[in-house]
Amino acid sequence: MPCRDINYSGQTDWPEVKKWLELRINPDSKVDGIVKDILANVKNNGNQALIEYTQKYDCPEFTQEMLKVSLDSVRLAYAEVETEDLEIIEEAIRNIRNFHRKQVEESWWTTGEDGTILGQLVRPVDRVGLYVPGGQGGETPLISSMIMNAVPAQVAGVKEIAVISPPRKDGTLNPYILATAQVLGIKEIYASGSAWAIGALAYGTQTIAPCDVIAGPGNIFVATAKGQLVGEVGIDMIAGPSEVAILADGNSDPAWLAADLLSQAEHDPLAASILITWDKDLGAKVKAELKRQADLLPRSEIAFKSLEDWGAIVTVPDRDTGINFVNNMAPEHLELAFEDPWSALGLIKHAGAIFMGHFTPEPVGDYFAGPNHVLPTVGTARFSSALSVETFTKKTSLIYTDQNYVTRHGGKIARLARLEGLEAHARSVETRLK
Fold it and tell me: Which CATH class is domain 29-235?
């Protein structure tokens, strides 16, 4: 199996590994200019720009009437989806909603003995736009992404949620996207894709109202558009290529480990799938399983390319050295595939999500268990977190002071203002001392 072998003895080996992994971050400067022009076009021309781009890239017969999906179409799609599938979607939504309810922050304030009242108001943003990729020609819709973005926004208390997704060649959206929206209770759905859809959510058009926060994954054009809009709207994150790291001992099943690595590799040719082990024989067994299993996958070409370029078997002398590798990598997904993973949990400093033990593969979290699968990638777990209810809220400070407070502390405040050369600030306080 074309998957590189790395011997990692400790911290001194990390710079070379880092240099290799960072090659996955390869921004195309040409995309920046293209996206900038697209966003400007949408800002200036609204629906007309959306229709022209959609006709060119997705649906040649697309019209303005097809931009907003009717509620009748949503109901028909819901009826088209198998009852068993709807039940699975509903159960996943319940699990994810229950998890995110525990993230809700309350407003608070405190009262001091001197009469001051200080606090923080936690409020949802007014309106959120969710981008949902359509998958291959609209036939492999990312319904899990819609759920993972919509549920925390709903739990946060956002009143208006708009979903936008690229149409298929006939101008329709996949029924699973519409049925999932129906289960979620989302009624505002649009058919448009790529950077122009992101521009529509940010700036608004004659049909689509502008949003305060935009969330959802996408290709380089979507990611670049979100990046260029930072400061004009809030975004969830700019995600890079996905990755999984698996820390495993010799008691792990090679077939299971290979299946877990392939579950990441089939995503994208840039996805990184890395096994770290202190068992010298495990790597060869996993490689044999990777070859056997990859040949059987519908997306085998993508998986092979991913493993060839960004797959690795990392051999370390012991578990602690393996943990050192993990903390340096700060992976998006981390599986601890050995007995008593809880004994190592306190040593893991950086990971987007941690999957504990032999019976918790990454897809458990991707689809069903409850935690969010929108996670920091390419090492950003060192300083950022999974998408959460907080993504869709904002915090406002609350300050109340009375005359006695200003009399007691006004001189100090004025002095600090003058140290910064801000005379009007000082006088604003001092005028209340007379």
Answer: alpha beta
